[in-house]
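Running this now, will post back.
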Amino acid sequence: MAALGVTFSVVVPEVREAPLDGETPVDFARRAAQEKGGDIARRASADFVLSADTVVSIDGKILGKPPDLATAADMLRSLSGRVHSVYTAVTVIRRDGASFGEVDQTRVWFRELAEGEIDRYVRTEAVMDKAGAYAIQGSARRFVPRIAGNYTNVVGLPLPVVFDLLKRAGRMV
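Update: finished.
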């Protein structure tokens, strides 16, 4: 947000992040972003609320935030040597209740990971609060030889999408 010149404050939503049975990765990300934004809009007095949710998906399966290190390691094993998608849904809600939303997708290639690399990564990095158990902006960048799409989407907030939504909401010139 600062990169876009927008003054902001962070408010943590009180929303449970879990996919519904049969929910696609895109639908889950979209619903979670809307629920987060709606929760904050009800509790905060702001001109607008921006919320987002990022989902990692492989073979249609949603890889959320791992509940433990063993699950984080399993997630990285499933990504090893494969291509997966990262979806980030962004929602902007104005004070008048008007809502604007969009979902961005980036394809991410992981190189083959050795078991020792996976074990070391989950022990030394903050994996528990990351969808898919990795952060491309950190040391996991060495796992990624290629992406197709927006890098900031994989980081968790696709700035071009945010700019477009803020512009549509009347917040950017």
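Residues 76 and 134 are 8 Å apart (CA to CA). More later if anyone needs it.
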